[in-house]
Specification:
Layout: H1 2-45, E1 49-54, E2 58-65, E3 68-71, E4 80-81, E5 87-92, E6 107-110, E7 119-124, E8 128-134, E9 142-148
Antiparallel strand pairs: 1-2, 1-6, 2-3, 2-4, 5-7, 7-8, 8-9
Length: 150
């Protein structure tokens, strides 16, 4: 019993990092799922959808109703809060000439035609990072890089 407790005590610190890495990977998978949902919903409902980054550490899906974007508050599109130690950075391609930065702040647009606003998203914590990107309007978002040790 003493040997088992000693081995567990020695491995506990490394297991803590493993759980943190798992939370980061889960956050990246969940973000990818939200981009797929946004694109699918934009196509199937013929409405402009927007994935917005919340400065408080999360993101949410919104749908265009008239001139405004209304957050989706139920179902799979409801707001997602990132784990406490996970951060998200968004780098967008330049917005179309018809949009100003105020009209499209920290958001990724998904159009009824199936096209997407190209962007890069970086999810990271103290242990590692995942980069998710859409390189052209005709592509979907995909995991392009996973790395450790920030």
């Amino acid at each position: 019993m003493v040997i088992l407790c000693t081995v567990l005590a020695m491995s506990a610190p490394s297991l803590r990092g493993w759980g943190r890495g798992s939370a980061l990977r889960d956050a990246a998978d969940q973000f990818l799922a939200m981009t797929r949902l946004a694109r699918t919903q934009a196509i199937s409902t013929a409405q402009w959808h927007r994935l917005c980054i919340d400065p408080s550490g999360g993101y949410y899906l919104a749908v265009r109703q008239g001139e405004a974007f209304l957050p989706i508050t139920a179902g799979a599109g409801k707001p997602v809060q990132l784990p406490a130690d996970v951060r998200l950075d968004l780098v967008k391609a330049p917005t179309p000439a018809t949009l100003t930065e105020e009209e499209s702040p920290q958001c990724i647009d998904f159009f009824p035609t199936g096209r997407t606003q190209p962007a890069r998203v970086r999810l990271y914590d103290a242990v590692g990072a995942y980069e998710i990107a859409c390189f052209s309007p005709a592509e979907t978002f995909q995991l392009v890089q996973a790395g450790g040790g920030m």
